Amino acid sequence: MPKDAFRLFEPARRTTSVVFSSPHSGREYPWSFLRKSVLDQHGVRSSEDAFVDLLIADAPLLGAPMLAATAPRAYVDLNRSADELDPALIEGIGKSAHNPRVSSGLGVIPRVVSNGRVIYRGKISRDEAEARIATVWTPYHNALQQVLNENRAAFGEAILVDCHSMPHEAIEGISQGNGPRPEVVLGDRYGASARSDIIDRVEAAFAAAGLRVGRNAPFAGAYITQHYGRPSRQQHALQIEIDRSLYMNEQLIRPNSNFDHFKRLLTGVMAEIADVGRGALPMAAE
In this predicted model, what pLDDT tens digit does every residue of 15-73 receive, in sequence order? Predict the structure, then answer.
């Protein structure tokens, strides 16, 4: 098992209701897991939102906590419900109502990585699946809800910004009308998971940084956005998907020459988002 399910980075003092998280950038692969896989470590890493935790690492300097998974997505997918168990992978799991994520091999314990490549030679035991959920999934989500509860108590609301990256090929066929494809996709479950002014401000911050922004297509947000987005309880959640080609070499899974520049750009955007959680109004145009 990974030594820790996550790392929580706290600011010296929380000054905003915003919480940044990165559930898919974990890269601590247990040897026992790699030994069971038919893929080499490079292949199994293809499903990572690689380096997103590094991109948002300055969140505490902005007064916001940052929660980052350490366990990899191929081991446990934290953006799935704990009951999204795949009968094609896990022994003793009966078929249930159709779930397209589970059917495609992308349940809470994934059967495949990107491009549908199978991870395992056969099935894993139910005990192993449940142990992964108990030691990785449950601690991460307990910590996330605790941080959100603390922010609601301190600020009257909590805003979760769940940060991901998307393969460049995932958006090659997407365009904004007749315009170019987006570089950032914001997901708010089509308005269900966050107050509209919050998502408007986040979109404006990315646009002001010169990035092309789309909403909800092709990514509207999965379990985390759906589960934690409770605007009626003053708990908001939105998902951010960033085109990986902006900061990394996808084939080599390495930061590219633009990484440092893009991180600085993103930190500026995050500062604007943190201001949303302070009730700060955007500066008026002169």
Answer: 999 999 999 999 999 999 999 999 998 999 999 999 999 999 999 999 999 999 999 99
CB atoms within 10 A of CB 282: 13
**Using an 8 Å Cβ cutoff, are 25 and 167 in contact?**
no
Q: In the block, which residue shows the tokens 């600085």?
A: 264
136-174: per-residue pLDDT in tens? 999 999 999 999 999 999 999 999 999 999 998 877 666
Name the helix (H) or strand (E) containing 21. Answer: strand 18-22
DSSP E strand stretches across 113-227: 158-166, 184-187, 213-215
CA distance 245 to 265: 15
Burial track 126-141 (b if 16+ CB lie within 10 A, e otherwise): eebbeebbebbbeebb
Residue-level length of the chain: 286
User: What is the C-alpha to C-alpha distance for residues 47 and 110, in angstroms, rounded to an integer?
Assistant: 10
How many CB atoms within 10 Å of residue 38? 12
Cβ proximity of 164 and 24 under 8 Å: yes
Count other Cβ atoms within 10 Å, centred on residue 246: 19
Report residue 86 CA to chain centroid gap.
21
Between the alpha carbon of residue 112 and those of residues 18, 191, 209, the distances in Å are 33, 30, 35
What's the token pair of residue 85? Answer: 């168990």
